[in-house]
Design brief:
Number of helices: 25
Radius of gyration: 45 Å
Number of strands: 10
Oligomer: single chain
Shape: elongated
Helix content: 55-70%
Strand content: 5-15%
Length: about 700
């Protein structure tokens, strides 16, 4: 039966009690934690008042009829949750002060961690309850200030506990287990033990930052040096007060490690020993038998940094870059697997981590990737070289010659070449995919740059090696071959753009290079398709690159042709017409302009004839000469009806000069030998004049204009 006091309790009593408590808590918190507050933190205690009000709410709920005051009680309870949370935060912050006075760092760290979690919870309740924002701000500011004070103490203890030095090529780390003095405090009555310091840092949520800083220094001062100087001495010693790790050459000892191959076994053994010893010094020997939070954090921070250093400075440099070295690489990989097993057995690496195991399993693929990277460096150097030499190439001497491929497919029957096969009468049983008689597959005799010839040869060598490798390695090497051509088309137009646009020689040589590369791209994939692993032989092609290379070479060739056309037309236009040739000054001007145009055409002929394929050279010069004739004929047409007899003689002489362009059209007779580069207009054995009108459309029209002049 409820007591008389319980029976007289009303909802208004509870409401008034909560109001008084709320005002008391707000005033107390404001006086304690707002800026410039002077109230003693320990002088305020809300816990008894909160328990009294909670008891009143419980009693009201008990004596009320079922369903009565449900909403009101829910509001009361929500407010009390907020006030209780404020009291908990206050008690944690005041507890922190007491812990710091007694130098109990572990308790202080735990108090600040709990206070932070409660303040985060308060942020959520504040948004729901509409509590004064300045209370939340004041509490959070005080918590952050206390955490900063704790971190300052941790900083001093950290600097005292760990001391790095590097003198005379010797790295040394001294770890102090029992700290009694720091820069600003003394702990003689209650020494700070290293393991307690680490646990306190972890409780305060600061251990990650300290361990990361420590691990980075450890990797730099010891792991990096072990990898680079495996022959140096590693020593580790321990007493009750401290431990010392030292690595380096003793005085007077000279290391020859740079002159010999590093001992992988010794390097990995030293790395394991020093890492195991470090963890033992920091966390104790018992940590090797279980995954404590501190040990998990230690491994989570140190191992990724260790792997980054091993991968960059040890594993990747160890990858062979040739097949012979790859055959002896298995010993190194076995040592690496044993190292991985030791790390996992000693809980220095998480069991699920497979980085080292995957590296060992993908050794051949890593080798191919390294070769691919090194190859790209070499290819770029080839492209950027200033070698101006050229090679003479022709269809019969090049790999990928379509007729030789056909013969290889057909065997003895291949004696019948493509050109001898009648269109539409190919025996279906003898089809090989090479029955197309297309000029696209033909490579006329011409000159290409050393760079282009070298790149194509490199691609063939890589594909030849890929045909003997496992699928993954073969795939990597196949794409390495493609990368060669991708780099050429990406770098060449950018690196030599000025020359390609302004040098007639470089422009036509680049055109030849692209045609030469296209010739090989057309059949390169086909040549190796049957020899590559099934995983890639279905898509091992280079045909998709052909249009880009063709367009690239032709675009610069066309640009150069337009430029040379404009130059020729400019020379003719500089004559300012062919009128008044009886005037000596005018005659000399016209004569000089025509000779300049001819001289320019002759210079182009001299540099293009040895480089371009014969038919391409004749066609190209025909277009320029045709442009020249068009400009000259336009000037003659402008004289219609005004040309005097005296001027006719002079004009016939001028047009006679133009006829010297005929000397540019000559062709070497097959079987006459090289004969060298010879000057235009010189008669030599093995050369034959070509019909000019075949290549110059306006040649006959020009002759008619010349013959029709009034004498």
């Amino acid at each position: 039966m409820p007591s008389q006091k319980s029976a007289s309790l009303s909802i208004s009593d509870v409401h008034e009690a909560i109001g008084r408590l709320e005002a008391s808590v707000v005033a107390g918190i404001s006086g304690l934690y707002r800026q410039f507050a002077v109230m003693n933190v320990g002088a305020v205690d809300f816990q008894e008042d909160i328990l009294t009000v909670l008891d009143m709410i419980y009693t009201l709920k008990k004596v009320s009829a079922k369903g009565q005051y449900t909403n009101e009680i829910a509001v009361f309870q929500s407010k009390m949750d907020l006030l209780t949370l404020l009291d908990k935060i206050h008690r944690e912050l005041s507890g922190f002060e007491m812990m710091m006075e007694t130098k109990e760092l572990s308790g202080a760290a735990l108090a600040i961690s709990d206070a932070k979690a409660l303040i985060d919870e308060l942020a959520e309740l504040h948004s729901a309850q509409g509590f004064p924002l300045d209370i939340y701000v004041a509490l959070k500011r005080d918590m952050l200030a206390k955490k900063a004070h704790l971190k300052h103490i941790f900083d001093e203890l950290y600097r005292t506990a760990f001391f790095y030095s590097c003198e005379n090529d010797i790295s040394e780390l001294v770890i102090t287990f029992r700290i009694t003095v720091t820069a600003s405090a003394k702990y003689h009555d209650s020494p700070v033990f290293l393991i307690s310091l680490i646990q306190s840092m972890n409780s305060a949520g600061l251990l990650t930052d300290y361990l990361t800083t420590f691990a980075e220094s450890f990797i730099k001062n010891f792991i990096d040096r072990i990898i680079k100087n495996a022959a140096s001495e590693l020593s580790m010693s321990k007493t009750k007060l401290n431990a010392t790790i030292r690595f380096g050459n003793v005085k007077g000892m000279i290391s020859n490690v740079s002159q010999s191959k590093p001992d992988a076994t010794k390097i990995l053994d030293q790395i394991f020993k020093i890492t195991h010893y470090l963890r033992e010094c920091l966390l104790g020997a018992e940590e090797t038998t279980e995954w404590t939070p501190e040990n998990q954090l230690f491994v989570n921070i140190l191992f990724p940094l260790l792997m980054d250093t091993l991968r960059t400075n040890f594993l990747i440099p160890s990858i062979p870059d040739n097949r012979d070295a790859m055959n002896t690489y298995s010993d190194f990989l076995n040592e690496l697997r044993r190292f991985d097993e030791r790390l996992k057995a000693d809980r220095l690496c998480f069991p699920e981590n497979m980085e080292l195991d995957m590296f060992a399993g993908n050794a051949r693929l890593q080798c191919a990737r390294k070769r691919r990277a090194l190859m790209m460096i070499g290819i770029r150097e080839i492209i950027e070289s200033e070698d101006q030499n050229t090679y003479e190439v022709e269809e019969a001497t090049e790999r990928g010659y379509i007729k030789s491929l056909y013969s290889a497919k057909m065997g003895v029957a291949g004696n019948k070449t493509i050109s001898e096969s009648a269109p539409g009468k190919t025996d279906p049983s003898t089809k090989t995919g090479l029955e197309i008689n297309d000029i696209s597959f033909r490579l006329p005799k011409c000159h290409v740059s050393v760079q282009a010839q070298t790149l194509v040869e490199q691609a063939y060598q890589i594909l030849t090696e890929a045909s003997t490798m496992d699928p993954e390695t073969a795939t990597e090497l196949f794409y390495c071959a493609r990368d060669i051509f991708d780099m050429y088309r990406a770098v060449m137009p950018v690196l030599h753009e000025d020359e390609l646009l302004n040098s007639p020689t470089r422009a036509v040589l680049f055109y030849n290079d692209t045609e030469y590369i296209c010739h090989h791209l057309l059949t390169m994939g086909y040549q190796f398709q049957d020899r590559l692993p099934p995983a890639i032989n279905q898509f091992a092609t280079f045909l998709d690159m052909v249009p880009f290379f063709r367009n690239l070479g032709e675009s610069y060739f066309r640009a150069q042709m337009r430029k040379q056309r404009d130059i020729v037309q400019m020379h003719v236009s500089n004559a300012q017409g062919f009128s008044n040739l009886t005037d000596d000054a005018r005659f000399e001007t016209v004569e000089r302009c025509i000779k300049q145009a001819l001289s320019h055409l002759n210079s182009l002929s001299r540099v293009w004839k040895p480089i371009l394929a014969e038919e391409m050279y004749l066609t190209t010069m025909g277009l320029l000469v045709d442009t020249f004739l068009e400009s000259v004929m336009a000037q003659v047409s402008a004289l219609a009806g005004t040309l005097r007899v005296e001027e006719g003689h002079q004009l016939r002489y001028i047009l006679g000069l133009v006829l010297k362009a005929e000397d540019m059209f000559e062709k070497r007779v097959p079987g006459s030998g090289n004969g060298g580069m010879r000057g235009i207009g010189k008669k030599g054995a093995g050369w034959v004049k070509m019909p000019v009108r075949k290549y110059v459309n306006r040649w006959d029209a020009f002759l008619k204009v010349k013959d029709d002049l009034i004498l």
